[in-house]
Model the fold of this input.
Amino acid sequence: MTDVTAVRVDTPGSPATARLLAEAARAVDAPDLVLAVSRNGVRTVHTGGSGEPGPVPRELLGHELGSASKPFAGLLLARLVAQGRVRYADRAADLLAPGFPVHPAVRRITLRHLLTHTSGLPGLPADFYPQAVPRWSTDPYGGYPADRVVRAFLRARPRHRPGTRWHYSNFAVSVLGHTLAAATGTPWEVLLHQQVLAPLGLDATRVRPGPEGADAVGHRRDGTPVPALDTGGFAAAGAVRATPLDLLTFLEAHLGGPDPRDPTLSAALTDVCRPLLRRGRRHAHTHTLTWFHHPSPYGPVLFHAGATLGQQAFLGFRPDTGLAVAATATRRVHRADTFVATAYGLLTESP
Done:
C-alpha cells in the first residue's frame, strides 16, 4: 500500500519525482518505507511498505536513525565552536576529567579526532561485548551507561596515534557527546535541543521514544517487531529519532534553506559541509566533519546512513543542485538489503 504526496507548491518536476520514488520503492522490502525528496525546497514524499499503515501517516512517525544521528552531533559541535565555547583542537580528556591520569595517546585526542573517526579508539569499548552479546538482538546498549563509556575512554589505549588513521567509531562519537556536556555543564539531550533542534524548527525530532503511537516500530528480517532502541551511554552516536519530514528540514538547512537567525548556526552549517580529510581504499573518498563526501555526475554528494535493531535511515544531499534525500525503513539490515543502495541511487543517479 503506497501513497505519494507533493508537499508545498507543486511544480512540473514533482510528478517525475513521484514516478522515480515509486519505482525505487519497489526495490525495498520493509513493513514501512518512506522515500522523501526535496528539490530546491519542493518536496515529494512516497510512503509504502508490506505492512498495513497505522492511524499516523508514516512520514509523521518518529524513526530511529542509528548512526545517521552523527550529523546532528557534528552540527552541534560546529555550532559550539562558532560560538567560541569550545575549539576543535581542545583535548577531550582535559574537558571531561581535568587532571585525571590517562594514557599519553588519550591525552592527545581532540574533539575533531572524536567526530572524524581519527581518534585511534575502537568501534566500541572492549568490555562492551561481554554484557551485550547475551542480548545482542534485543538490547545490546542499554546495559552500558554513560559513566561506563567515560571510564572506558579514560582508561583506553588507542590502537593508532590520534589523527593518523580513519576508523569508524561509535565509541568516539559517544565520548564527544559526554565531553560537550561536561564542557558546557548541560546534559547532551538539552544541549542538542537548544543548539540544533529548536533553531532549525525540528519539533518532531528527539533522542527518546515519543508518546505511544508516535514512533515507527522496527522489525527483524522475519517481520517480528522489536522494542524501541535504548542507546545507553552511546546517545550521541545513535539516539536521534525523527520524522522523515523533519529530516528533510534538517537537510534543507545544509542546502541554504531559510537563513537561521543566529550567524553561528550559518557558520556551523558551512563548516560541516567542508571537505576535511581523505578516507577509504587508496584514500579515494573525502570526509567532512560529519558527512561522507563522494563524487557524482552532478557534483559532490554528502550522506550518512544508520541502522538499529529493526530500522534503517539514510540522509543525503547534493549542494550543487539543491537535492536532498531522506529515507527510512522499518526492517533490520541484512546482507542482501537494498535500502541504502536505493536511497543512494536517488541521490546520485538523477539530475
